[in-house]
Amino acid sequence: MSETEVIQGDTGSQPEAVSAEPAPVAFIDTLNEELRTEPSLRNFTDASGLAKSYIHAQKMIGMDKIAVPGKSSTDEEWNHVYQKLGRPNAASDYGIKDLEGFSEDDINNFQQIAHDAGLNAKQAEKIAKAYSEKNKEAIAASVSEREEILAETKTELEKEFGKAFEQKMKMAKSAAVRLGAGEIIDEIELSDGTLLGDHPAIIRMFVGLANQMGEDTLEGETTDLIMTPDEARRELNQIIAKDTPYWDKTHPEHEYYTRKALELREHIHVG
Fold first, then answer.
1. CA 249 to centroid of chain Cα atoms
2. Does the pTM exceed 0.85?
3. pLDDT digits 0-9 by tens, 176-200
4. Residue 3 is assigned to a structural domain of this protein
């Protein structure tokens, strides 16, 4: 076989070569050897992150640095941090005044708590104002609810007492004062925000006591009592009861009974 002969080999197809893309190079590996060994640079994945960190560090130059205390830090160490963050030297230095719904003692207590917690003046003021606003809203809602309940009570008792409403209310108040309960019933607050003395059942109770005590014992008043519609009905039933002069035209008191019955009916109707 001559040197020019071609040796025929396997005529089968050969596999195509696959071109592999180069693996991405980590940012840290693009730096020189001296920088690649710096631990603080291993957290950066690109040049942008490194640049941002550098800019932030430049801005921090000249600013006060505050070390954050740990769990085992002393009160003195924490107080040092609070002072650096703007806490006043004393609780009274917050200068919080005139918070609606809060007494002077309430404000002083809040300032002391704020100081113990290490709040600066701005933080304490913001919290105080927030609580004040919430308190005002609660007071307004309570006043509105009480006014609504009082209106309902008045409507109920006006219907019950009729023309005697004003007089009965005065009688109830006078009886409460004479019995030494005037201040108590105006101080005890019920769950619905109303006072004990505003409750219909309590008013009825003192009206009953006033009736038992007699009109001349109530603040020296001797005026005739005005009857409620129910009282008028009871008296009318007595007037027109069987075997009363109301039914006997020959009886000398017949005219009085008929006139009285008419007055009572008018009173009931108007009441």
1. 70
2. no
3. 888 888 888 888 888 777 888 888 9
4. no
The answer to whether residue 271 scores a pLDDT higher than 60 is: no
- The DSSP result for 247-262, as a single string, is G-TTSTTHHHHHHHHH
Question: Rounded mean pLDDT of the chain?
Answer: 80
Q: What is the C-alpha to C-alpha distance for residues 143 and 139, in angstroms, rounded to an integer?
A: 6
Give the number of domains in the chain.
3
Domain that holds residue 36: 27-60
Which distant-in-sequence residues (6+ apart) come within 8 Å of 189 by Cβ? Answer: 195, 196
Element (H, E) at 20: none
> Around 216, how many Cα atoms within 13 Å sit in the side-chain half-sphere?
0
Contact yes or no for 187/195 (Cβ under 8 A): yes
In the predicted structure, residue 218 carries a pLDDT above the cut 60: no
- Residue 150 falls inside a structural domain: no
Q: Which tokens belong to 267?
A: 């009173």
Residue 209, domain member (yes or no): no
20 inside domain? no
Evaluate whether 53 touches 44 at the Cβ level (below 8 Å): yes
